[in-house]
From TrEMBL, chain A:
CDD domains: Sortase_D_1 (cd05828). Pfam families: Sortase. Keywords: Hydrolase. This is Class GN sortase. It comes from the Bacteria. GO terms for molecular function: hydrolase activity.
Amino acid sequence: MNAAVLRVPGRIGKAARGHGLAALLLLALCLFGVVEVGRGLYIPAKAAVAQVLLDRAFERSRIDHAPHKPWAWADMTPVARLSVPALGVSRIVLDSGSGQALAFGPTLLPGGAALGQAGTAVVAAHRDTHFRFLRDLKKGDVIFAQTREGVERRYRVTGAEVVRWDGYGVADAPIGERLDLVTCYPFDAVRSGPWRYVVHAQAVTQ
Amino acid sequence: MPHTAVSRSHAIRRALIPAIVLTLGAPAAMVVHATVAAADESAADDAAPQDGPATGTLMLHGQGTAKSLPAVRLGTDMDVTVTGQVARVRVTQAFRNTSDTWMEASYLYPLPQDGAVDSLKMVVGQRVIVGHIQPREKARATYEAAKSSGRKAGLVEQQRPNMFSTSVANVGPGETVLISIEYQAPVAQVNGTFSLRLPLVVGPRYTPPHSLTSEVAVADANAVTAAPVLDPALTGKANPTSISVHLAPGFDVANLISRYHRIDVAGPLADRRVTLADKTVPANRDFVLEWRSASADPDLGLFAQHTAKGDYVMAAITPPANLDGVPRPPREMVFVIDNSGSMGGDSMDEAKASLIHALGTLRPQDHFNVIRFDDTMTRLFDHSVSATPDQVALATRFAESLEAQGGTEMLPALKAALEDAGTGGGNDPDVLRQIVFLTDGEISNEREMMAAIGADGGRSHVFMVGIGSAPNDFLMERMSTIGGGVYTHVGAPGEVAAKMMPLLDVLSHPAVRDLSVRVEGGSLDLTPARMPDVYAGRPLVLVGRSDKLAGTLTVSGRIGGKPWERRVDLASALPSPAIEKLWAHRRITDVEADRALGKLEDAAADTEVERIGMESGIVTRRTSLVAVDETPSRPAGARLTREELPIELPAGWDFGSLFGQDAIKTVPATEGSGDRAAMQAQMLELPQTATGFLGTVGKGLALLLAGMTGLALLLRRRRA
């Protein structure tokens, strides 16, 4: 008995120590999981909140046609608003093509033309936040653009294609006003790949 | 979006995999990550194979491609009458609207560079509406006004001397509108062979970015590159063309051949009728008909036209070609070969074969160099070198290695060839300096090229060798005329030797030196104003105007060191109804040459061209023909859809190397961006645009799930 009794606490003690360590590890795992979920959810939250702030800054810009920073430490300013009435989508476009600006909104790539000018304006955004709607754009859909200079344009989607990130170009010769919306492809991939999805649109008169 | 459903199930599966694996232990997370990434890449590759159409090539944005047949179908008929040495051609284009909407169609097509368009008729049902000549902007406004008011209208504009466009507005559903234009062009004559060339297609043009300096320049470049190119899979289904030729040259015809099409021939020898054996052919290569005289080769053609405005005369005089006793001085030859994307396919092989053939004829006392260009250029040697067997072998290997790709930046290559003067070959005036240019000439900045030859030509003679099934003959003809050389066309791989031999004979010496022309017993206003160089077997073609045709025309010069003279009695000229228009066309060519040489301001040249065009009623850069049906046909409120009709890809061209599908595949990523930006597109690197937050959230959730499951198990063990 004694031996058994003695043996039991020893086993329980060892087991309890083992259980404690396992519990601690598992708790750490849970905590790490929570942190990861939070880190993940922060991205769309930041994207959504930024758009609200950008919208305000853009409204101010539309009044005085001058650039306004959405927040004091921002290194970019809103240049235009793109909207797709059919999908109920409205996005503020930023002027800097750095990865930083992409976190807050679609950005006008410096290599393309300006919106409202001859040539092809190229706007890029994340496929899982601001440009998730590109997958739903169809040929013939109408995209409205409103720049802070007060230019308003109507574009009609002419088609879409998948290109490699380094296999894309815009014509040097201005050939009417065009708009290309670019995002990563495929839309539901977990990691990023070499492919980009490009929606082509052409300015149309009323 | 057929991918969506597949991608979504992929995503779910991908999210599940880490969840399941992670319950077995967190340390495996890194491995999983790599697996998912690999699976992702392969899935993406499946979705868009690299060489499939989904890859998308935006390389030639200005000139798109047409994957389907247009709503407005076009059929073309050419009816040619050759009398003497002038061809009168009626081109009838039938625009048939196969859609159920009202259409406006526009078609870009070539005509001979020396053709003068003087008549436009539009046929609507039973009615014929005759077009009128108007200054270009005014004609455009007339057309636009008719178009918006719903009336049928036709407009013929000149985009280049060899490139025209027809626009026709308000073609109703199911309706056919005929546009009939007429032009005349002199028949070319070389070594006793007469040839009639009917160009059927405009090759896609390259526009050098530097030439797009103003809105006018952009509009001009757009006009010549607006037409989409038909997918080769549809060859023969759009723009079928029928041709019939009535050949009455004034002598019995012999050796009548069609270079590139099968023909049927009927009628007496002096009055031949030629039709296509296949009834219609795709408009994808030039039609060339050649014939000789059954008797001795004529060395004189003299035609005149008497009008109320005055008398017009054309004289084609062929000097005797006897080069036997002529010493052959040493030469410095610079070969310039075009290896741009538009040369892809048969053209590149023809160009290489022509160059290699020419290299084989060099003698040790000659000097030579080879320059190749696309949107970059390479000089084989820094300066011209002696044509030793070793150097020639080196140049041959260089030629063999050339591949067609990239844009067509011809100007730097031309300037390099011209500036090389005075080196290598020395400044010895007896050394003939010759530049042989092998190209298809598919560029839109032709005037820059002519200006360069005009300004820096010096003692160099420029010989153009036009390569392919539809080269830009306007550029070739003008560059060789201004450059004091001749133009030769090599249209098929089998022709290389046959066409290069006479050219190389010609290259050895101009046939006549110190050429001069004088008129006695009358006055004559002659074109060309500058006497061209006359080569063996090629006639000197003079066109003149006089109030009253009389007297004799005397052409004199030195052939092989001996004086030579030919007197022509102007009164003996045969009547021809085409000479007045030819004279007007020649005058415009003179004006354009003066403009290219900087002797005439742009505005003054434009005014002069417009004046001649209005006076003679011919289509020029500054004058267009417009026909308007006064009866409104399109109901108010019905929409009008505009369509640029596609053009066929010239035969032997390589669709892939032109539109960049291969360019992307074959150019390694390490090369400079200049090479990759072939065909006038600016490359743009697309940023990484995925936050991957779902992955992070999924990973977090999986870790959380694993932790919680572990804790639950632990808790149950403890309770038990």
